[in-house]
Specification:
The structure is a single chain. The chain contains 4 helices and 12 strands; from the N terminus they run αββββββββββββααα. The strands form 3 sheets. It has a 5-stranded antiparallel sheet, with no helix packed on it. A 5-stranded antiparallel sheet has the order 8-7-10-5-12. It has a two-stranded antiparallel sheet with strand order 1-2. Among the domains are: 113 residues, Jelly Rolls (Sandwich), CATH 2.60.120.10; 30 residues, no CATH class. The radius of gyration is 22 Å and the shape is globular. By secondary structure, the protein is α+β, with helices and mostly antiparallel strands. One of its GO terms (molecular function) is manganese ion binding.
């Protein structure tokens, strides 16, 4: 009986403590004039918040796909869309010309869910357990999820343009492109070769294409 009472008292005090000191607010619109920390941006003065902080028009326009990957990604993260700061959500739009690709990349800060609106995609990810590959050809209306932190890609495998939108469970999921991480840096080519088992000539070629040095 004494043990039960002790647990009950502890539980009650825990509820009172969390109720008394828990910060409750409707939103935390990003103050883009300040620095961004691990938890996002600090909150904009509530008296300066307007409806425009909760509306974003940037995903309406098609991105420019005249580049090496024939693709464009337009983000609606907290740095572009202040209203999502602190809410655990964000969006992005991807336009892919025929043959366009979003190369292998990771989002260390969030899981991604994709819905294909136009075209045909080959999309997939690699698990961290035994490097198991999960990939599928997606058609208009299909949805696919990419777990947080795993390497994944999207390739326009159709004859026309492809358009998809993605959602994240983070206001800023982060991004690291594998090709850029390997070949758009100033590491000596010999070190990259030793760490990747790739041919030195091929590494130098890729560094030249992607802007790396060393």
């Amino acid at each position: 009986m004494k043990t039960s009472n002790t647990i009950l008292i502890f539980f009650t005090l825990s509820l009172l403590f969390s109720s008394s000191f828990g910060a409750v607010q409707d939103f935390c619109v990003a103050d883009l004039s300040g620095p961004q920390g691990p938890a996002g941006y600090s909150c904009k003065n509530a008296n300066k918040v307007t409806v425009d902080d909760f509306v974003y028009h940037g995903l309406a326009a098609k991105g420019n796909t005249t580049n090496i990957i024939k693709a464009a990604v337009t983000t609606a993260f907290d740095s572009q869309f202040p209203g999502v700061n602190g809410l655990g959500i964000s969006l992005a739009r991807a336009d892919l010309a025929p043959g366009g690709v979003i190369p292998f990349h990771t989002h260390p800060g969030g899981t991604e869910i994709l819905i294909l609106l136009e075209g045909t995609l080959c999309a997939g990810f690699v698990s961290s357990s035994a490097n198991q590959v999960f990939f599928k050809t997606l058609n208009k209306g299909d949805v696919m999820v990419f777990p947080q932190g795993l390497l994944h890609f999207q390739l326009n495998s159709g004859k026309g343009e492809a358009l998809f939108f993605v959602g994240f469970n983070s206001p800023n999921p982060g991004l690291q492109l594998l090709d850029f991480a390997l070949f758009k840096n100033n590491l000596p080519t010999e070190l990259v070769a030793a760490a990747t088992f790739l041919d030195v000539a091929q590494i130098k070629k890729l560094k030249g294409v992607l802007g790396g040095t060393g």
